[in-house]
Amino acid sequence: MSELSRTLREDREFTFDPIDCRVRCLPHIYNICVQHTLDNYADADFIHCPRTWKNSAGKVIDRDSYVDSVRTDPIGCGRDVVCTVRSSGQRRTNFRQTILSGNEQEWFINDTGDIVKLPVVQLLHDVRTCWDSTYYMINRMRALRQVCDYRPEYGHHLHVRHSSSLGYRLLP
Q: Alpha-carbon distance 150 to 148, whole Å?
């Protein structure tokens, strides 16, 4: 810290006291920002957004539909699904078996109607102290969403909230 203080003073004419000042960890700052954003996103004011826009895939998104999906808390729905599926070994096994059977019997289709094979993986938890874990949880949920779409009774049996189709696409 003393070296940082000297460098700042000499190169930038900036006074930095290495004893009384702390430099926070950048990943910690990212985590704080991400958590605040996630905690408050469903209550955000979207009035200044355009009525429609194109997402990164070029699809037109309607603001009212987007706001309705955001208000259903798709991240919370995803967390519920992950917690429910991972809460017991039997549920994890059934989820995995659904993927295997669906791939073998060609149950799963993508948005264009093509048959797809899903990766045989488990859902991932997000961890509040790991700023990018929510991103990984959402990506895994999106990769495996056909499991719940094909077997709605599976989700109902597990007593989880399902997000709308738009809710799955809210985040990249």
A: 5
Between CA 45 and CA 20 the distance in angstroms is 39
Nearest Cα residue to 146 out of 112, 113, 118: 118
**Whole-model pTM?**
0.65
Q: What gap in Å lies between CA 25 and CA 120, rounded to an integer?
A: 36
Lowest-pLDDT choice from 7-11, 44-48, 167-171: 167-171
Q: Residue 6's CB: how many other CB atoms inside 10 A?
A: 12
Q: CA 59, CA 77: separation in Å to the nearest integer? A: 23
Q: Which tokens in the block code for residue 80?
A: 């519920």
Write the DSSP symbol of residue 118. P
- The pLDDT tens digits for 55-114 are 888 888 888 888 888 888 888 888 888 888 888 889 889 889 989 998 999 888 887 889
Give me the helix-helix angle, 89-105 and 74-85, nearest 10°. Answer: 100
Strands 52-54 and 60-62: antiparallel
Phi, psi of 26 (to 5 degrees): -60, -45
Residue carrying structure tokens 């929510």: 134
